[in-house]
Amino acid sequence: MAPHKIFFIVLLHLIINLLVDNIVKGIDVKPQKEIYLPNYNFYHNISSLENKINEIVQRNTNYMRIDTNYRSRLGRSQLVIHITNFTGSTSTQLFKNTMTPKLKVLLSFGEHAREFLPVESMLFFLSNLTAGLSSVPGSYAEQFTRSILSKVDLFIIGMANPDGRTLLEQKSNYCWRGTSTGVDLDRNFDWEFGGKGSSSDPYDEEYRGEQPFSEPEGKVFRELTLKYTFDAFVSFHSGINQIYLPYADTKSKLEKRRPYNVEDMLDLASELSHATKRGYTYGHSYALNHYTADGTIFDFMSGSRMIPFSFAIELWPWKQPPRGKSCFNLFNPRSEQLEMYLKRVNKQCRGTGIPK
User: Fold this and answer.
1) CA–CA distance from 30 to each of 45, 73, 180 (Å)?
2) Distance (Å, rounded) from C-alpha 336 to C-alpha 35?
3) Are 130 and 18 in contact (CB under 8 A)?
4) What is the mean pLDDT of the chain?
5) What are phi and psi of 71, to 5 degrees?
6) Which of 93, 121, 149, 349 is at a distance of 20 to 30 A from 33, taking alpha carbons?
7) C-alpha to C-alpha distance for 158 and 75, rounded to whole angstroms
8) Phi and psi torsions of 127, nearest 5°
C-alpha cells in the first residue's frame, strides 16, 4: 500500500474514532413533540460553540488559526479553522527516507441544523488533538500531536450552517434542517442539481433552492477547494453508522457511475470501518440507501473538484426506525449521555496513539 494511502488511513482512523449522517426522509420541518431535548449544560448552543472554538484556537496559536471571513447569509461566522504547524514547509517525512507533500484534508460539520452530535464530536476532536501540546515536553502525547500537525494541513468548517442552527434554537424547532431560507445546503451544490433526489418545494426539508449555490454558506466550500488542492474531504452527519462513497445522485444510480479511484476509496472505507469497534457499513450512497440525493456536497467534491477521497460519514447508531413525531432523538443522544458517549468513543481509541 502506498505511503500516502497508509497515512490517510491513520489520519481518518483517528478522526472517525474521535467523531461519532443518516439522511432521513419524510420528517416534517415543523416543530414536533420531542421525546427529549438538549440540555445546554451538556450540549453547546451556537454562542458557546463559537466561544469554545475561539478558546481552543487562542491556546494553540502556533498550530491553529480561525478565518472569520466566511459567513452565512445573516453574517454569522462559519468557524473555519486551519490546523498545521505553519512552518511554511509544503512537504513532510511520513516514513523514514520518504518525503511527500503535506496532506490537505477538509472536514465539514453542521450542514444540517438539527444534527448536534457531529459538532460536539468536532469540539471533542479538537480538544484531544491539541491536548498533547500542553503535555510534558518530550512525552509521547506531545510528540504524537506535534507529529500529526507537522504532516497535515487540516481545514475544518466547524459550523457550515450557523443561521439554521440559530433559527432552530430560537424557535425550539429541532426538526429544522435547512438554512435561514429553508434550503438544504446538502442539496444546493452544482452536481446533478435539480434531480428528483431533492425538492423544489420550499416547505420540504430537502428543498434545493432556486439554483445551485443560491446559499452564501456554499461559498467557503467553493473557495477553499479552488485555493487548495485537497487530498480528502469528509462531510460529517449523524443518524446511523455508515460511510458513504460517491455518488448519491439519481443519474449516477441509473448509470452505475462510480469515482475514478473507486477501488482505493473502498479499500480506505473498509480500513476505516474495521478500525472501529462499532463497524460502519460502507459503500456507494445510491446502493446503501433506498433513495437518491442530488446536489450533495460530497458528490460535488468528488465529481467536480476531483478530490481523490470524498466521503460522507454518518456517526450516531440510532436503532429505531426513523419515523414518528420527534426529531432530536433521531440524530443525537440524551444530554446526560453525551459526555459518557464521547468518553466511550475516546476509550475505543486506545492504541491509536491519541493523547488522552
Assistant:
1) 20, 22, 14
2) 14
3) no
4) 85
5) -135, 160
6) 121
7) 15
8) -65, -45
Model pLDDT, residue 350: 40
Instruction: Verify cis geometry, omega within 30 degrees of 0, for the bond prior to 247.
Output: yes
What b/e sequence results for 121-133 when a residue is b if at least 16 CB atoms lie within 10 Å of its CB, and e otherwise? bbbbbbbbbbbbb
* Contact in structure between 82 and 126 (CB atoms under 8 Å): no
Amino acid at 118: P
| pLDDT digits 0-9 by tens, 93-151 | 655 666 778 889 999 999 999 999 999 989 988 988 888 888 888 888 788 788 788 88
Q: 190, 126, 129: which is closest to 158 by C-alpha?
A: 126
pLDDT at 289: 87
More confident residue, 315 or 282: 282
* pLDDT confidence bin for 290, thresholds 50/70/90: confident
Residue 262's pLDDT band, with cuts at 50, 70 and 90, is very high
Residue 290, Cβ neighbours under 10 Å: how many?
6
307 within 8 A of 231, measured Cβ to Cβ:
yes
User: Contact 301/263 with Cβ under 8 angstroms?
Assistant: no
Distances (CA, A) of 156 to 57, 123, 236: 12, 11, 11
CA distances from 53 to 47, 241, 330 (A): 10, 26, 26
